[in-house]
Amino acid sequence: MSQQYVAAIDQGTTSSRCILFDRDGRIVSVDQREHRQIFPKPGWVEHDAQEIWTNVEAVVQESLQKSDITPDQIAAIGITNQRETTLLWDKETGKPVYNAIVWQDTRTDDIVRELGAEEGQDRFRARCGLPLATYFSGPKIRWLLDNVDGVRERAERGELLFGTMDTWLIWKLTGRHVTDVTNASRTMLMNLATLDWDTEILEAMGIPASLLPEIRSSSEVYGESTGYLAGTPVASALGDQHAALFGQTCFDPGDVKGTYGTGTFLVMNTGTEPVTSNNGLLTTLGYKIGDAPAVYALEGSIAVTGSLVQWLRDNLGLISTAPEIETLARTVEDNGGCYIVPAFSGLFAPHWDSDARGVIAGLTGYVTKGHIARAVLEASAWQTREVVDAMNADSQIDLTTLKVDGGMTADNLLMQILSDVLDAEVVRPMVAETTCLGAAYAAGLAVGYWPDIETLRANWHKAAEWNPKMEPEVRRREYHNWKKAVRRTLDWVEREDGE
């Protein structure tokens, strides 16, 4: 029998790609295509779902042809995707009724306030684990029903289907209308306890149940592909951060992964019972493998980490390329008393203050551009520390190791600072593409390409590790100063009464 591979389709916010993996979890081939970002109004962000589908078809074919791999060599297809992005389409023609509304889109602000009413943003949190926010899919569905001509009537006649991008791709590939528990958990519409759609929330939001896909596990055969990979099982779906958790083999309660890109997402495996956060984190699904119990997670999202380095480059011109920040930061021993809190459009976890704005605090005549570069890197680390403290408090499990991935992890100084401020080991794996790897692993498990999760653990290899070197007293003092700087950012935007 010829060599077999697993194909992972990663449908992301800016591009779609396909990566082929072998049995050792190594990358064999990659192809990627960007799609347009559509901005009809300030705060509105849309994607053309048909364009995305065309790109997905192309990257699947190209990834095979680049390495002379034939379709019959693909054992399974796994899917990972940008979460919360919302699409409605006609179940007969397959034509979207409107562009996909992207997770970053804020047009549902009024709907969210209306739904909160007297009870506020925590109205549904006990049922779905999430605060009312423009981020999630439920309010976006409501907006489409209320604002696109004829859509509510067609939905109530049972003519339309809803999906996040995993559901759209599975439907295009197999004709099946399904999603997995991780993507369903980001809609605000799934009950965390039952892992089914919550009729009370649907009624409150005015969303017909007939729109919604069947909720399945993250690792099982949903159907067979048509088209170029005809007959190949489509066998996994995981939202991108959940896929990274799985790709990092965070299979035990207390395991945490951090993905460092434009922003940062930290996700902790909390085991088979959901943990309600009292400290500003989201309760979500980690993954569900076949008939095994679902694994839950706590998630903390940080809005600005890598984008702060871009700001230093593009807005201030202190560096000409992002990697230069490490060289510049190494020209000094410490931050010189300077702290940067990048609340460019508010603070995410654990503060959730949309009225915060960024500050540079502690400036004196002593501070140089090297100190500012160092403070930029430290901002990512201290923001991580705040989220990890919230995770430790919620889960009552103290972090000992953070598994990291994403573009910023190439900065070795940042990784050392991260270890220092967390007082924990920081580990970077050999395969940095953990999102795609997680989707591949889940699909391969479903078809027996990999026999069990112990095999996946054995595939995971450490590329580098960092251990804390900072003195406890220095860590305590610096964290105290960081928190003082954060307090300066809070409630910066002042609103008139009734605004």
Largest sheet, spatial ordering of strands? 17-18-16-15-21-22-23
Note the quaternary state here: single chain
**Beta-strand share of residues:** 15-25%
Shape: globular
- End-to-end separation in angstroms reads 67 Å
Q: Structural class of the secondary elements?
A: alpha+beta
Radius of gyration computed on alpha carbons: 22 Å
Largest sheet: 7 strands, mixed
Give the helix level as a range of percent. 25-40%
Tally the beta strands.
23
Instruction: Extract low-pLDDT stretches.
Output: none
On the 0-100 scale, what is the average pLDDT? 92
Query: How large is the count of helical segments?
Result: 16
Summarize the structure.
This protein is α+β, with helices and mostly antiparallel strands and 499 residues long.
